[in-house]
Amino acid sequence: MSQSGMAGTKSILVINGPNLNLLGSRETEFYGRDTLEAINARLAKRAAEAGVRLATYQSNSESDLVERIQQARRDKVDFILVNPAAYTHTSVAMRDALAAVGIPFVEVHLSNVFAREPFRHESYFSDIAVGTVSGLGAKGYELALEFALQYSGKE
Ligand code: DQA
């Protein structure tokens, strides 16, 4: 297990891309009624129970998201959960940042992107992700966190 964070504690970063700050009120038929704050609070509670450090970050700006991913390497983050939102389908820059830092990550989508418009079927992230979760709503983040807690790099 890499567990290279401070004092040997595993460190997990949750990154959310554009418009996910509007969760709870945004297109609830696709994204549900949970706010991002509520989702992050559940993740923080679970991480605390597991004795793992968890940081969360949301931005609507591609450059800020790239900076935050770069920062993750300096912070010795062990695992990333990322919902790149619309940047899933457009951002070579975010993909390159994740490839550059080399931190294993799971790609999370609340909605089932494959049941939606064809442009959402393409992702710049899936082929370099450890795995993807799509269509399980807010629960998808919690399931991805459970995976991250168990991840040892030998899967
Ligand atoms: C999303 C799916 C994307 O296609 C969309 O642009 C989003 C959210 C999801 O969580 O289902 O903003 O990533």
Unreliable stretches covering 5 or more consecutive residues: none
Q: What is the CA-atom radius of gyration, in angstroms?
A: 14 Å
Largest sheet: 5 strands, parallel
Estimate percent helicity: 25-40%
- Percent in strands: 15-25%
Distance between the termini: 11 Å
Q: How many strand segments?
A: 5
Shape: globular
Explain the layout of strands and helices.
Blueprint: E1 11-16, H1 28-31, H2 36-50, E2 53-58, H3 62-74, E3 79-83, H4 92-101, E4 105-109, E5 131-134, H5 139-150
Parallel strand pairs: 1-2, 1-3, 3-4, 4-5
The structure holds 1,3,4-trihydroxy-5-OXO-cyclohexanecarboxylic acid.
1,3,4-trihydroxy-5-OXO-cyclohexanecarboxylic acid (DQA) binds at residues 19, 83, 85-86, 88, 109-111, 113, 120.
Description:
The chain has helices spanning 28-31, 36-50, 62-74, 92-101, 139-150; strands at 11-16, 53-58, 79-83, 105-109, 131-134. The longest helix is centred in the first third of the chain and has 15 residues, at 36-50. The mean pLDDT is 95. 35% of the residues lie in helices and 17% in strands. It is α/β, with parallel strands linked by helices. The structure holds 1,3,4-trihydroxy-5-OXO-cyclohexanecarboxylic acid. Residues 19, 83, 85-86, 88, 109-111, 113, 120 line the site of 1,3,4-trihydroxy-5-OXO-cyclohexanecarboxylic acid (DQA).
